[in-house]
Amino acid sequence: MAARVPVLVSSLVVAGSLCAWPSDGGAAQSTDAEERADQASRGLVTLTARSTYQGYTLSLFPGARDAGHRNVNRFSQSLDGGIYALAAGQVDVVFSLRYTTDFGTGFHRDTPADAGIPAVDGKNVLGILYFYVDWRSPSGFLNLRLGRQLILDDLAWNEVDGLKASIRFQDAHARNRLEVDAYAGLPVALDRLFSSDAFLWDGTEVYDGRSLFHGLALGGSARATVMRDLSASLTYRQALVHRSDAISTFSDEESAAASDGKFGLQEHLFGLSLGYLARPVDLSLYASLSWDLFVGKLDQGRAGVAFDPGPGFHVQAEYLRSRPRFAGDSIFNFFNIFGYDRGRIEGSMHIMGPLIIEAGYFVQAFEGGALSSGATFKGSNTVHGPSAGIEFRPAILPMAAGARFEASTNFGAGVPYGGTYRFGELFGNATFLGGRLSADARLSFTTTASDWYENVDADGDAPSNTSYRIALGATVRPVDFLDARLLLAQNIDALLEGSHYVLSELSVRY
Questions:
Q1: d(CA 202, CA 190)
Q2: How far apart are CA 242 and CA 446, in angstroms?
Q3: Which of 63, 94, 60 is nearest to 80 (CA)?
Q4: What is the DSSP letter of 3?
Q5: Alpha-carbon distance values, 202 to 73, 207, 329 (Å)
Q6: Following DSSP, what letter does each residue of 295-357 receive, concatenated?
Q7: Is the pTM of this model over 0.85?
Q8: pLDDT digits (tens, 9 = 90+) for 57-78
Q9: pLDDT in tens, 148-166
């Protein structure tokens, strides 16, 4: 008899926004230059508040009798907003604050192995995702940003408390452009008041330094566009951390020594990207790479080409080379962590207008194999698989319906590194009453076989498990400023038979 492990999830989301314009509504609509300048000097205020509650129960050991359970009752409140166009339109103040707590029970990083189930991590956490002041020169040539900021570039995310300066050059028609950024400041520390772990590096938990100056983060980028069709960028980033106590790294390699002691190198990266749009033949070509100067190896490389002759036809091919990246003093840098190569091709096409078909295929090869019982993994390190889909979108009806399928399998016998899977779904949605009411439905299945199973090194057979999911949802908009949504889902499989999911959401805009 299959074990029944109920899982109940309920969520309530209330979102609101407030836009406070200048008190003189006539000035907002006037075409008089002096009145518009006066309006800009007083600024535009925006606020968006979102409250979210989630609660669910999970069995820690599915299928076992009297197994422990983890209860999660998570509440978060966020406030995003800004004051824009102050000081004659040259200054903005932008912020995102977040409060999170959890009333549930479960294991956390300080739980002893033989302990019962204590409270979960994450109680009463107040964080600042970003909070900065922007200043723009009247000509738009120079921009200064001071405060906590999220920096997104060719090296992915970075969160810094500091100053960023940006300059921009462009011709009269914006066909040729050059933008240069440079920033310096403190890396955002974890486990401190107003800290944020939204973009936490693997292997890093806290800074143990006691001083305000706990490190240094610096970097910059240059981005150029030539004749609107050719683009290029260069990016550099370095992050250092100052510790209270010296540490010893896990290797004598030169790269590891750079993160030894009280002042260590956490991140040292260089990035490059190129793109070109060949308009006469509707081709887009792109390539990018990031080089990890800390370990002296390629971090990630990507190259591809896309053919888009019209809105109803698309073909793309891409190659990706990726290596796991960790903080400089992370123990994971010295384990056998594998990089991988992945190639894929995909395409989509509209047939007779409302019918859309899509198809794709991927091949992925890992640099090695996992170890089990002290023996080398005997399965293949290469996986591959197809994907396909069809969707019907009639122009005369506000509805859509379709099906999708994808799979990952092995070139040879046995289960490859990373396992295999099959996934398929049928879906549909429709809108009624001029958008006031919408409904959606989804039926899916997933079959998986893991490469971590007993007797894997003795050529044993990997067991597979198939789960099914039925989801029904509806959204109602009785008035323009109010949305209410309800989603019900039922999961059925050998391990979690009877589990279900409930989501309720209420959005209010004012």
A1: 13
A2: 47
A3: 94
A4: -
A5: 25, 14, 10
A6: TTEEEEEEEEEEEEEETTEEEEEEEEEE-----TT-GGGGS----EEEEEEEEEEEETTTEEE
A7: no
A8: 665 665 555 556 666 677 878 8
A9: 998 988 888 888 999 999 9
